[in-house]
Amino acid sequence: MTGEADRRPGVPRGERGAITVADRVVAKIASQAAREALSRFTESTGHVPPGRRTPHVTTAVRRAPERNPAGPDAESADRRQAVLGEARMRITVELGYPSDIGAQCAAVRREVTEQLRTWAGMEVSDLVVSVERLHSVHARHADQERVR
Fold this sequence. Notes:
The chain is α+β, with helices and mostly antiparallel strands. The chain is built from five helices and three strands; from the N terminus they run H-H-H-E-H-E-H-E.
């Protein structure tokens, strides 16, 4: 007995259907990756209050262009087939101070880009990491936001 899918002419099994990854899934993967990257900087994370350690991610996902294996750049055809889309995102973080802010932001960029490629099959075209607030070790009280 042959199924209906086996009788369809012209479309190979591997090219039927589509996989899409929702924006919120991409944002959750990016947030987790950023949190993991920042957790490696122990001198900074100890100064940030527990409720403020989660990075905030805004993202926009664009589906991958249609595949054309007979295109002019055939060497990148395998790469295009592996990519499900392209993500643009902004990640805001709160960091402890003093610390190496540049190294932490670079680690977030590297980890988020790698994890999105691995877990969601997405390329990151634009990634902005912004520091929303620095938490100083010199603050007298845990509730105090500024050093005076």
